[in-house]
């Protein structure tokens, strides 16, 4: 999941700090999630998915629809992970 979080944040053009601010977390938390040292809580995952309109199944497992929609209505398709 940590790679998908980083991929999402970079696709949004956000720093770890800015990404964290949008979901109410410290940039240090985002850094530990992206490094794989810690996994986000269920509440943090829900915040990310709700805020950025991301498919939770994709974020958690890499499976399913990879599209997410920015607030401006622009859609992105992130890379599919190979099995």
Give me the secondary-structure topology.
Blueprint lengths: L1 H11 L3 H8 L3 H9 L6 H11 L3 H6 L5 E3 L5 E3 L6
Antiparallel strand pairs: 1-2
Helix pairs in contact: 2-3
Question: Quick gist of this model?
Answer:
By secondary structure, this protein is mainly alpha-helical. The protein contains 5 helices and 2 strands, in the order H-H-H-H-H-E-E.
Explain what this protein looks like in three dimensions.
A hairpin with a 5-residue loop joins strand 1 (67-69) and strand 2. The chain has five helices and two strands, in the order αααααββ. It is mainly α. Helix content is 54%, strand content 7%. The relative contact order is 0.18. It has helices at 2-12, 16-23, 27-35, 42-52, 56-61, and strands at residues 67-69, 75-77. It has a two-stranded antiparallel sheet. It starts with a helix and ends in a 6-residue tail after the last strand.
Note the main attributes of this structure.
83 residues, mainly alpha, two-stranded antiparallel sheet
Low-confidence stretches: none
Cα shape = globular
The helix/strand order is: HHHHHEE
Estimate what percentage of residues fall within beta strands.
Answer: 5-15%
Number of strands: 2
Alpha-beta classification? mainly alpha
Instruction: Kindly report the oligomeric state of this protein.
Output: single chain
Instruction: Determine the N-to-C terminus distance.
Output: 14 Å
Percent in helix: 40-55%
Q: Average pLDDT across residues?
A: 84
Main pleated-sheet profile: 2 strands, antiparallel
Strand order of the largest sheet: 1-2
Please give the radius of gyration in angstroms.
Answer: 12 Å
């Amino acid at each position: 999941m940590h790679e998908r979080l980083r991929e999402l944040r970079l696709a949004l053009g956000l720093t770890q700090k800015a990404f964290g601010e949008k979901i109410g977390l410290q940039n240090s938390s985002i850094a530990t999630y992206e490094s794989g040292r810690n996994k986000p809580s269920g509440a943090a995952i829900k915040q990310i998915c709700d805020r950025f309109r991301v498919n939770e199944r994709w974020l958690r497992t890499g499976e399913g629809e990879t599209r997410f929609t920015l607030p401006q209505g622009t859609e992105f398709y992130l890379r599919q992970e190979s099995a």
